[in-house]
């Protein structure tokens, strides 16, 4: 089996897609390194897991870039390799650009882009030594086209796309794969935990999020995409997102006009 005995490091593993991936990979025979800011949530999540020897909990805050190199070394030393890194941790936004504090903009970029990029850079040397590995950053459909109330979030995901597209080309000859995960609507707490202009939690579930695919289904699709080495893995693309993606490529001017009057929540 693809996942059997693979060492998989998952950030943002305490809830949503990260939690579902951690659980499925573990139950498919993988060895999992689980990271999130709150250790207690990770401990609670894995309480019923029987084979604790296939589990390593490593608390981590992706916004603290100076700690990521040390974290990567700790993760690597636990089993002597890192086969898969899934950069899932992130934070969204629900505020007009003009009403968003600079510190909120910086936090979003620090976590979503710089945290993911810095952690990946720290892990790459170990994968180069192994001569193989998978890096799977979780982006968003917002990384393909931007909408109101998500300006900084979209910027962070577009930066993610650019960085990892380049990294994929740089590492191809060394046997390291970079597979970008592009979620649309998945039923997680991402909108509840999104930051408003002052940095407080939005606290409202988006209707589209509420009707999205389950984290379990998202995780299954992601794992299947990684097994097939898909360059980009799209999940939860409902019809209007597919339309937006098509228009962004074929008729960007028309999409821009649509977004001016779109009712975005």
UniProtKB/TrEMBL annotation:
Alphabetical UniProt keywords: Oxidoreductase
Keyword set includes NAD: no
SUPFAM superfamilies per UniProt: NAD(P)-binding Rossmann-fold domains (SSF51735)
InterPro entries: NAD(P)-bd_dom_sf, Sc_DH/Rdtase_CS, SDR_fam
Entry's Gene Ontology cellular component terms: membrane
The keyword Oxidoreductase belongs to this UniProt entry's keyword annotation: yes
Pfam families: adh_short
GO molecular function: oxidoreductase activity
NCBIfam families given in the database record: PRK06181.1 (NF004825)
Family: Belongs to the short-chain dehydrogenases/reductases (SDR) family.
Name of the protein in question: SDR family oxidoreductase
Organism: Oceanispirochaeta crateris
Higher taxonomy: Bacteria, Pseudomonadati, Spirochaetota, Spirochaetia, Spirochaetales
């Amino acid at each position: 089996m693809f996942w059997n005995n693979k060492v998989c490091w998952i950030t943002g593993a305490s809830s949503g897609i990260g939690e579902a991936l951690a659980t499925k990979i573990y139950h498919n025979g993988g060895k999992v390194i689980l990271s999130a800011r709150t250790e207690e949530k990770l401990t609670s999540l894995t309480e019923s897991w029987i084979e604790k020897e296939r589990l390593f909990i490593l608390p981590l805050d992706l916004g603290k870039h100076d700690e990521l190199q040390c974290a990567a070394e700790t993760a690597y030393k636990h089993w002597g390799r890192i086969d898969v890194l899934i950069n899932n941790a992130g934070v969204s936004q629900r505020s007009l650009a003009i009403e968003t504090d600079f510190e909120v903009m910086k936090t979003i970029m620090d976590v979503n882009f710089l945290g993911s990029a810095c952690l990946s850079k720290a892990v790459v040397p170990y994968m180069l030594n192994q001569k193989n590995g998978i890096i799977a950053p979780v982006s968003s459909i917002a990384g393909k086209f931007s909408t109101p109330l998500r300006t900084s979030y979209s910027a962070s995901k577009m930066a993610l796309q650019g960085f990892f597209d380049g990294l994929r080309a740089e590492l191809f000859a060394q046997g390291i794969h970079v597979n970008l995960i592009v979620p649309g609507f998945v039923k997680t707490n991402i909108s509840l935990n999104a930051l408003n202009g002052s940095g407080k939690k939005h606290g409202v579930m988006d209707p589209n999020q509420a009707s999205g695919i389950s984290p379990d289904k998202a995780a299954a699709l992601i794992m299947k995409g990684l097994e097939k080495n898909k360059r980009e893995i799209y999940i939860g693309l409902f019809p209007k997102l597919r339309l937006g993606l098509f228009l962004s490529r074929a008729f960007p001017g028309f999409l821009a006009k649509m977004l001016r009057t779109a009712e975005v929540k």
